[in-house]
Amino acid sequence: MRVPYREVTNLSTVVDWLDELGARTVVLDVEPLVAVWDTGEAELERGVEEAVALLAEVPSLESVGFATNSLRRLSGAVAGDAFFVTAARKPLLTRPYRDLPHPGVVVGDQLATDGVLAWRLGFAFGYVRHPEMRRPFGPTALRALSSPLRHLLFRPASP
């Protein structure tokens, strides 16, 4: 089964798409959409707070989550009822997301991790492209899998 796929550029376009879909769940990859790689705790916390505030504009949302394969952590609780998964092991580990309400959307910059997680959950996938951004080696290497995975697992979301 192929799941819907749409390219998104920032959180504002994500909010518009979530509203359009009537999404009940969203899981955001942390880097680079919420906080850029190798930034400090203050930027991470600020990014999460800003994302939670922006996502509050989507009336259908019941569950908001943040997931990162890195070891980054927040010093305190996430605002509202949002959750934060560190060392998420995407796309292998699905337990933290298994009981989230459908329809859902995973948003991230890697089809091989975030996209495959969306596919495994039966969620739509918002693909964040930042062509001008400098990336660490790992995310750069994973991008080589993007084209084959996109054609195999995803279908374009209706405009």
Question: What does this protein structure show overall?
Answer:
With 159 residues, the chain is an alpha/beta fold. The chain has a single domain (3-156), classed as Rossmann fold, CATH 3.40.50. The protein is 32% helix and 20% strand. It has 5 helices and 7 strands. The protein has helices at 11-21, 41-55, 111-121, 137-142, 146-153; strands spanning 3-8, 25-29, 63-67, 83-85, 104-108, 124-128, 154-156. It has a 7-stranded parallel sheet with strand order 4-3-2-5-6-1-7, sandwiched between helices. Strand 5, helix 3 and strand 6 form a beta-alpha-beta unit. Helix 3 (111-121) packs parallel to helix 5 (146-153). The longest helix has 15 residues, at 41-55. The model has no long low-confidence stretch (mean pLDDT 87).
User: Strand-residue fraction?
Assistant: 15-25%
State the name of the first-level CATH class: Alpha Beta
Number of domains: 1
- The whole-number mean of residue pLDDT values reads 87
Using the alpha-carbon principal axes, give the shape.
globular
Count the DSSP helices. 5
What letter string, H or E per element, gives the SSE order?
EHEHEEEHEHHE
Largest sheet: 7 strands, parallel
User: What is the gyration radius calculated from CA atoms?
Assistant: 14 Å
CATH architecture: 3-Layer(aba) Sandwich
- Predict the CATH topology: Rossmann fold
Instruction: Please tally the β strands and state the result.
Output: 7
Low-pLDDT residue intervals, each spanning 5 or more residues = none
End-to-end separation in angstroms reads 20 Å
* Strand adjacency order, main sheet: 4-3-2-5-6-1-7
Tell me the helix content: 25-40%
